[in-house]
Design goal:
With about 900 residues, the protein is α/β, with parallel strands linked by helices. About 35% of the residues lie in helices and about 20% in strands. α16 packs across α21. It is flat, with a radius of gyration of 32 Å.
């Protein structure tokens, strides 16, 4: 796999895509000769095309990829550059027996990615009008294209830009393929346990027994060469000896024996493996090599792999429960799907779900995630009618950008709740810019989840609190909460917790208060919280809940109960259930403080979440309210700017990368790069002497600013490198001398490369816009309050690139300084629309120039509304981008 990659096909299979090698010539000839006369005519535009050496040379000229299935070449794709180096002519051929599976599409996608990396911007495809398969392939890709018809031939001009339309189309293809590939795991016809044991208490024995006891309606076969039968079921020496076709095999053998066991399963046609065994990448280099070989075997045979080093899977499907775990107890069937990267935590999750009565549709322990990841499971659960809520425990991300897109799409249909381990960083690199100093991997996770609508929890307790609410109650239409209690102090605690979680407690309507007064004693409080006093009866609880639910100014209700001597908790719970029958359109949460667990009646046909403390209820409801607000947001679009000079920007970057030392771009390079993307800058002049500074001041007009230029000094103000409000040419010259003298006193004379003179721009809000590239998550776009105090104030928020217009607006509004931008204490509002456009242009720049590792635009002056936003100072660092994870 070192020189290629596997791609999923629409039927769930996989194909290896790799560069053609000289030794492939014979197999490529066999592929082309094996084409039917019709396919050969469509590929070579001639009914009598012969596959001689000349034809073979033409077919393998230029940049060539092959598609390989279990050692056989079944597809060929190539491009050859035209006179215009930005254009290339391409062609594809796929074996007749493999057509219709998506191999041609997979070849085109990989070919286009490699072409773009070599500077090719457009493909020319000449297609016979009768070649409907190729025409459908081109139309279905999602790329923008035009066509010209001449005779019986159509010439397609395909723009190889991965815009929003292409990404959506590619994601749709991936969704179909990923879901299909998991069919043998979620709906197997027969299951085998390789390593099933006769020894009670062993993993192989308990897992096999759990499968038998679970109720799976298909056959389950034990594989053990040393046993005649296990749990009274006949055992087989090998999967190849089993008379049935096995779809799913669970492997529970020592690590050293896993590869042979997997090979035997795959040769027998098994399409899904769950490897429980440990001793792989988690133990070092040898284990990592073993894991890579296991993955290679699975992909070559088109099979999916769960694990290794996992605790198995639990799937409550129509074929009956498939309990391929060694967990001692299981939760009931339900509509919550769970994926856990930790096996030990997986057992705890199942036990907690059982204790809370939370029903599970599926549980997948991902283990080392050699193949199957949370991205694949989200794809599968998106269309699963049995799943309504998705819970994730994650320790790492393989492809965060894909996760963001998939989660954003899935989250529109089903809530995703996640615990991401590892908030505390074990180390932090030295930050060279304001933006980098304010960023961090956990901030990247927060940004990712915020954009994708994923609910992030800090603990498993919080995860289950939220899941219980989302699985059983509707989302609130707003953040207005009413609290009903029989203890005033408890109501105050709940009110404080609500406010801390973004919820409000409005005063109830006059009509609602009047109805409550007729129900409750005169001493009771009916404003909000509603304090029924300790004398509140079960009946009054139910009636008060009905009254408050009817208030149009309330979106949700939290009911609190402390058991006095005269009132029974079960009786109160029964009245609450009666008040919620039929279920209201507003969520109801309860908190039975001091009782022995949740009253059983709350888990009946009408399930009302119950929490031990009011803080937990308020926290869960806050998450639900934020999810509802996220769903109300428009999807957003990535704008297509038409005034961008991408080629000019690329030329600047390529020249800079040729330098031996390239930590930061020179001022003129920064200016050229930003200008190429329409990012506004004030006029500036680079000077190298006091005299040049004076002349620059005359040319630009007074007042001006004089700023140090240095490759190594980031915070110029710290060394006296910024002089503002200069009102004469002589003062500009003095400012230059002062900067030079100050550096000399510090022994830093060699760090000065001149100074920049700019006209002074005042009368706005100083902001910071930046980019820092996280090694896992990719580029993060930052926005916040700018100027010299940016790091001290720390009022900066981040979003993952690429930004939509909605993301940019949300990023601006997420910082405390947003109040300053909207107009504060008589000051005019700033040009927020210009800031939004600037953020979107920065995001596009980072998309087109992935070599940007850090960017600091600080300060960005947000002028009055309608007057724009201007970048007053900018620094950009380049680095060769890491290879993205596929």
């Amino acid at each position: 796999m070192a020189d290629g990659e596997f791609a999923f096909l629409r039927d769930g299979g996989q194909v290896l895509l790799r560069p053609a090698r000289p030794e492939d010539r014979i197999k490529i000839r066999e592929l082309l000769q094996g084409l039917s006369p019709e396919s050969r005519a469509l590929r070579f535009h001639s009914a009598g095309a012969r596959i001689d050496d000349d034809t073979l040379d033409r077919a393998t000229a230029g940049h060539v990829l092959v598609a390989e299935l279990q050692g056989e070449i079944v597809g060929l794709a190539s491009y050859v550059r035209l006179r215009d180096p930005g254009r290339a002519e391409m062609a594809i051929a796929v074996a007749d027996a493999q057509q219709g599976r998506g191999i041609g599409t997979a070849l085109f996608e990989k070919l286009s990615r490699e072409a773009r990396s070599e500077g090719v911007e457009r493909f020319l495809a000449r297609v016979l009008s009768s070649n409907t398969r190729m025409i459908d392939l081109l139309r279905g890709l999602g790329f923008r294209m035009s066509r010209r018809i001449e005779g019986g031939e159509i010439e397609y001009d395909v723009v190889l830009r991965e815009d929003a339309a292409y990404i959506a189309s590619a994601d749709a293809r991936r969704h179909v393929a990923a879901s299909a590939s998991l069919e043998p795991l979620f709906h197997p016809r027969a299951v085998a346990v390789v390593g099933a044991s006769r020894q009670p208490g062993s993993i192989g024995h308990e897992l096999f027994r759990n499968l038998l006891r679970g109720g799976f309606t298909g056959p389950v076969y034990p594989v053990n060469p040393s046993a005649r039968a296990i749990c009274s079921v006949r055992a087989y020496r090998s999967v190849t000896d089993i008379p049935d076709q096995i779809d799913l095999a669970v492997i529970v053998v020592p690590a050293a024996a896993v590869l042979d066991a997997a090979r035997s399963c795959l040769e027998a046609g098994v399409r899904a493996l769950v490897v429980i065994s440990a001793g792989f990448a988690e133990v070092g280099a040898e284990g990592r090599r073993r894991q890579e070989e296991l993955l290679r075997l699975c992909r070559e045979h088109g099979a999916r792999l769960v694990g290794p080093n996992c605790m198995g899977v639990l799937i409550n499907g129509p074929e009956g429960p498939i309990n391929a775990t060694f967990a001692p107890s299981l939760p009931p069937p339900g509509k919550v799907a769970v994926a856990s990267q930790s096996g030990a935590l997986g057992i705890a999750i199942l036990q907690q779900a059982r204790q809370m009565g939370l029903g599970i549709s599926a549980f997948i322990s991902m283990g080392n995630k050699a193949d199957l990841s949370s991205n694949d499971l989200l794809e599968r659960w998106e269309d699963d009618p049995a799943t309504a809520v998705i819970l994730l425990y994650l320790e790492s991300f393989g492809n965060p950008r894909r996760f963001a897109r998939v989660a954003r799409r899935v989250g529109r249909r089903k809530p995703i709740v996640a615990v991401k381990g590892g908030r505390a960083a074990s180390g932090q690199r030295a930050a060279a810019s304001h933006t980098a100093a304010l960023a961090g991997s956990d901030i990247a996770v927060d940004a990712l989840f915020a954009q994708a609508g994923v609910i992030r929890c800090d603990t498993l307790e919080e995860l289950f609190d939220v899941a219980t609410l989302l699985a059983n109650q509707p989302l609130p239409e707003g953040n207005r909460v009413a609290v009903i209690t029989n203890a005033g102090g408890l109501g105050i605690l709940c009110a404080d917790a609500c406010e801390a979680n973004g919820l409000t407690l409005p005063v109830l309507s006059a009509e609602t208060q009047e109805r409550l007064r007729t129900l409750l004693p005169p001493e009771a409080s009916v404003a909000n919280p509603v304090d029924m006093l300790a004398s509140g009866t079960p009946a009054s609880y139910g009636q008060a809940l009905r009254i408050v639910l009817g208030d149009p100014g309330i979106d949700a209700v939290i009911v609190l109960f402390i058991p006095p001597l005269v009132t029974n908790a079960d009786d109160v719970a029964a009245e609450l259930v009666a008040a919620c029958t039929p279920p209201p359109r507003k969520p109801v949460l309860t908190c039975f403080v001091g009782t022995q667990g949740t009253p059983d009646i709350l888990r009946g046909a009408v399930t009302i979440p119950s929490y031990t403390y009011p803080e937990s209820a308020a926290r869960a409801l806050g998450h639900a309210a934020r999810r509802a607000a996220w769903l109300r947001r428009p999807l957003g679009e990535i704008p297509a700017f038409t005034d961008i000079d991408a080629r000019g920007a690329r030329a600047i970057v390529d020249r800079a990368l040729e330098r031996a030392e390239r930590p930061w771009l020179e001022p003129e390079e920064v200016s050229g790069l930003l200008s190429a993307y329409g990012i506004p800058l004030p006029p500036s002049i680079l000077v190298h002497s006091p005299e040049e500074a004076a002349e620059a001041a005359r040319q630009l007009g007074l007042p001006v600013a004089v700023k140090l230029v240095s490759q190594t000094i980031v915070h110029k103000s710290d060394v006296g490198g910024v002089h503002l409000g200069i009102r004469s040419p002589a003062a500009a010259a003095d400012a230059y001398r002062a900067i030079a003298d100050g550096l000399a006193e510090r022994g830093l004379s060699g760090e000065m490369r001149g100074a920049v003179v700019q006209p002074m721009i005042t009368g706005g809000v100083e902001c910071l816009v930046g980019v820092v590239t996280d090694p896992v998550f990719g580029p993060l776009v930052a926005f916040g309050l700018g100027g010299v105090a940016a790091e001290v104030i720390g009022d900066v928020a981040f979003r993952l690139h690429p930004l939509t217009d909605v993301d940019a607006e949300a990023l601006i509004d997420s910082v405390k300084a947003a109040r300053l931008l909207r107009g504060y204490r008589g000051n005019p509002p700033a040009d927020v629309a210009a800031l939004r456009t600037l953020l979107l242009r920065v995001s596009r720049l980072v998309e087109d120039v992935p070599e940007i590792s850090e960017m600091d635009l600080n300060p960005v002056m947000a002028c009055e509304a309608g007057k724009g936003a201007v970048v007053l100072d900018a620094r950009i660092r380049l680095a060769r981008p890491a290879t993205p994870v596929s």
